[in-house]
Amino acid sequence: MEAQPEFPIYRAAVSGLLAMFISLGVARFGYAPLVPALVAAHWYSAAQAFWLGAVNLLGYFLGAAIMRVWRGRLAAKPFVLVLMAVTSVSLLASALNWGIIWFGAWRLVSGITGGVLMVLMAAAVVGRAPPAQKGRVSGITFAGMGSGITLSSLLIPVLLAHGLVFTWAALGLLGVAATLAVAVLMPVSSILAAPKTAGAKTRASRPVLLLVAAYAISAFGFVPHMLFWSSFVAIGLHRGIAAGAHVAAWLGVAAALGPVVLGRVADRFGFLTTLAAGYLVMAFSVALPLVNDATWALDISAMGVGAVALGAVMLAAGAIAGLVPANRLAAEWGFATMAYAVSQALTAAAFSNLFHVTGSFLLLFAIGAASMVVCAGLVLAAQRT
What's the sign of the alpha-carbon dihedral 319, 323, 327, 329? Predict the structure, then answer.
């Protein structure tokens, strides 16, 4: 369904950015920089901290599953505000060191809200954008994830100087501020998930299945940089912690800018073409350390992976939006989000075990690069279909 001329699509896009910023960029990805502090302060052991991260990922999967099976019409704005408010409460509640069950419950809740908002904002914003502006609007909306990751990596070390309680409280108040901004900015609208009378005609089409497969397999390309990149530079190349932090910063900056830039490219060349080309760029970026470990090459690798890995989320959502009716977008994007969540979790576990056995960072990059070539082929197959 195309947006009506009077619908303020860019206000909706900025609202989507803020929702993604808090629910995913801060509440989900902002957890990783806090893990060493949680362990050092003896709130939780390293094993418990890993379990808490897995609980959040489980919640993310459940949130996407909720939107996958949702039927009927949904008022977007009040639902978004409730979800953002609950996310903010989960951050504030995490400041209370009341045990692992308390903390784990709130990590689960924030995962659920993040999974729902990932799917909901695609339907409520990207689904309303006119075709000629869909890439630009998608880029603004999904830039919230990368912006949250970048801000978290810069802000959390400063906040931690005042303690964990202060840090969690500050992040929670940041969530409250974002929620209030969305209350002012977001236009009133509704989305129609798969109609209750859809019956048996809810099976995804072959092009959508190919896109979902490509999106899920792309986790193989992102996990090596997501989990091992800083360690590869700092330990594998013997360049120290500062060098590892340097390349991680480039990845974060590119993650914030990637969706916006790739959205403009998609408006010009189409979502499927841009996504296939992006996956090939990511394949090159993941493979670059295999042939060159100079500083400039590592920086290019980090920027290429950061930009495409986060930009591909937006591109996949936009591509699916162009292949399905508006009332199927929430269900099909929910399906893709679920598939990616499972793939990322399994890939992280498999690559961690593989590294433990082989001790080779380069093997992980080689597998990741080959996987991205497969992803590009699947997207091209979807385009031909």
Answer: negative
Tokens 């080959």, residue located: 370
pTM higher than 0.90 for the full model? no
Q: Which residues pair with 73 in a beta bridge?
A: 192
At residue 199 the predicted structure's pLDDT band, cuts being 50, 70 and 90, is: very low
- The C-alpha torsion from 157 through 158 and 161 to 162, rounded to 10°, is -120
**What's the domain range around 325?**
203-385
Let me know the angle formed at the C-alpha of 274 by 273 and 280, rounded to the nearest 5 degrees. 95
Amino acid letter at 284? F
Residue 198 lies in a domain: no
Residue 197 has pLDDT above 80, yes or no: no
User: Within 359-384, where are the H helices?
Assistant: 361-384
Q: What percentage of the chain carries pLDDT values higher than 70?
A: 95
Residue 268 and residue 367 share a domain: yes
The residue from 175, 193, 211 where one domain ends is 193
Neighbouring CB atoms inside 10 A of 175's CB total 26
**Best CA proximity match to 105, nearest among 93, 117, 120, 122:** 93
Q: Which amino acid, residue 173?
A: L
In the block, tokens 């959502």 appear at 317
Separation between Cα atoms, residue 168 and residue 90, nearest integer Å: 9
Residue (of 288, 282, 287) closest to 311 by Cα position: 282
Q: Which residue has the tokens 């903390």?
A: 103
CA 300 to chain centre: 21
The structural domain count of the chain equals: 2
**Which DSSP string do the residues of 28-64 spell out, in sequence order?**
TGGGGGGHHHHHHTTSS-HHHHHHHHHHHHHHHHHHH
Same domain for 58 and 85?
A: yes
Contacts of 158 (CB under 8 A, 6+ apart): none
Which CATH number does the domain housing residue 87 bear? 1.20.1250.20
As a whole number of Å, the end-to-end CA separation of the chain is 23
Q: What is the pLDDT of residues 352-384, one digit of tens each?
A: 889 989 989 999 999 999 999 999 999 999 999
